[in-house]
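Suppose a classmate hands you a notebook page containing two proteins, each written out with its sequence and a corresponding row of structure tokens. How would you begin to make sense of it? This section walks through that situation. The first entry is reproduced here exactly as it would appear on such a page.
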Amino acid sequence: LFFILWAEGMNSFEAVNHAMTTFATGGFSTKNASIGYFESPLIQYTIILFMFISATNFTLTYFAIKLNFKKVFNNEEFRIYTSFILVLTSIVFMTLYLIDSSYAEETFRSALFSVVSILTTTGFTTVDFTGWTEFITILFFILMFFGASAGSTSGGIKLVRHVILLKNSYIELKKQLHQSGVFPLRFNNNKVPQSVVTNILAFMMLYVVIFSMGSIVMTILGVDFMTAIGSVASTLGNVGPGIGDVGPAGNFSTIPNAGKYFLSLLMLIGRLELLTFLLILTPVFWKL
């Protein structure tokens, strides 16, 4: 990625920094305008590709390097991850295209870049997506609660947890119709133990509770509602840009100092995984 970006017009300092922050899904740029500063479609498409790769399970990346593409395309999580990006990009693109059809390619590129950047929790920006429509703003806010593939550098909840919970909910519905039936939950053709489902349910519940309590804390500190929920969702999911004053066109400088300390804690909790961090706070852990 470093050599590609260098060849596409970045200087060596810019190329090495963006190569590292792309593959680490860190999102830091050497420019205040992020990737939008370079105004290069080629650079933007390159960053999109490598954000996509970096948020793919590294095991699948290994199989791809070994030219074992069957393993990659047969992976259920990868298929859902890819489909999710395509569907969301189509929704955002069509919404924007119906408003203004003058610049189709640029609109598609901006939609694709923003979807991949937020879903992979990289956080690079080329445009302020909160300035498009209220519908798209809410869509991207919800997207902050997903994350990409397990086994990648992506933050957030991870798609696999959402998929397993949706499958479990569907099985519970079938059990209401066929109460004597046995419906094993499968992911990638493997049976998922009930203990894993229980673990995911606990994780999701804690995530929602911490997000809700975090948003309340931020409003108590004097932050407006949109900025409060945007900053908490962004930091807890390690996304980068949020909504409100911390959107792509803003930053966290307006957050009160107490809020910055609190959001720093949320970033730490989100990066270490909730259960791991919260386990340290329990008395049982220190008695072992």
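The notebook's second entry, a different protein, reads as follows.
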Amino acid sequence: LEKQLKFLIEVDKMKTILRRTMLVDETRRENDAEHSWHFALMAMVLFEYAGEQVNQERVLKMALVHDLVEVYAGDTFAYDTKGYEDKDAREKASADKLFAILPTDQGTEIRGLWEEFDAMETPDAQYASAIDRLQPFINNIMTGGYTWKLNDVKSEQVYRRMDAVRIAMPEVWPAVDRMIQDSIRKGWLKS
């Protein structure tokens, strides 16, 4: 219990990790905890678009743990190529430190979910990754491309990032493609 409580107190820091994504009401940037909650809710609501092999409970667990390592590693903006140079090393070091707080069996389970999500190889991880990318995408659409415009993001970068949706949620892909094309027409994304 002592280890579990220490871990739960430590991950409260997720509430202080700001992401680049703006809230839909445009009052402020979202934090990691809000993103993880929204990701989990979206994964539940949109589950009918997941493949038949996808286990909803495992996806929801991934949603809850996928960004825990950012407590120490910080958030790396999706389109920050320089930030991605050492992202894996920072996150691995963070995982080593954070998951070691828990009792071994729980630390191993949660780290395994985090690693599976990160690898994007299983149907569960592919669906989870698609939702993880869809959540800030929708916020960008609803804020007039706020983050994209602020960071000079190009449409090909968004297409590359959103390919996870095309693969894991093919029924949703046409809507995403239309939104990207509309964002180009409106000048939110450069072609």
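A careful reader of the second entry would note: The beta strands are 18-22, 29-31.
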